[in-house]
């Protein structure tokens, strides 16, 4: 383990070598910034939302901030949308349904789990979060503790299982 003096000597020596290389033309620039990480290439997601629903807008904003290209469409009857995309009766009604790649996302599912589902190239139909648990994306409320909730996976036959817990 390096003590402070040894660390400073090592760091100073490294800087001296870097500047000497820069002056001699061996390197063209020196950067101490964190390495550049290329943005993720996420597929577009389309979300069907209820009219004048704040949590729908917040969830869409959270997905956009994560990197999903988002579009949304206001629909008067979410049950029609859910039936159209095969969200089975075991999922409680939610205020928004999304389609991304070949998957259906029902409710306040976290973005990282949607990305994981897409990357796994799963045969699942989609993911769902029952209800509107506090702390889920779009349901964050100042001063309110996050609730424990399950993210459910469902298949085309309407079978549900726990995909992740938050």
Structure commentary:
Strand 6 and strand 7 form a beta hairpin. It is globular, with a radius of gyration of 23 Å. The protein has helices spanning 4-24, 54-66, 78-84, 111-120, and strands spanning 45-49, 70-74, 96-100, 103-106, 126-128, 150-154, 160-165. The chain contains 4 helices and 7 strands; from the N terminus they run H-E-H-E-H-E-E-H-E-E-E. A 7-stranded mixed sheet has the order 2-1-3-4-5-6-7, sandwiched between helices. With 166 residues, the chain is α/β, with parallel strands linked by helices. The protein is 31% helix and 20% strand.
Biggest sheet, strands in spatial order? 2-1-3-4-5-6-7
Portion in strands: 15-25%
Main β-sheet description: 7 strands, mixed
User: Could you estimate the helical fraction of the residues in percent?
Assistant: 25-40%
Unreliable segments of 5+ consecutive residues = none
Which radius of gyration do the C-alpha atoms yield? Answer: 23 Å
Gross geometry: globular
Number of DSSP helical runs: 4
Total number of beta strands: 7
Mean pLDDT: 82
Look at the helices and sheets and give the structural class: alpha/beta
Q: What is the string of helix and strand elements? A: HEHEHEEHEEE
Our measurement of the CA-to-CA distance between the termini, rounded to an integer number of angstroms, reads 38 Å
What attributes does this structure have?
alpha/beta; globular
SSE blueprint and pairings:
Elements: H1 4-24, E1 45-49, H2 54-66, E2 70-74, H3 78-84, E3 96-100, E4 103-106, H4 111-120, E5 126-128, E6 150-154, E7 160-165
Parallel strand pairs: 1-2, 4-5
Antiparallel strand pairs: 1-3, 3-4, 5-6, 6-7
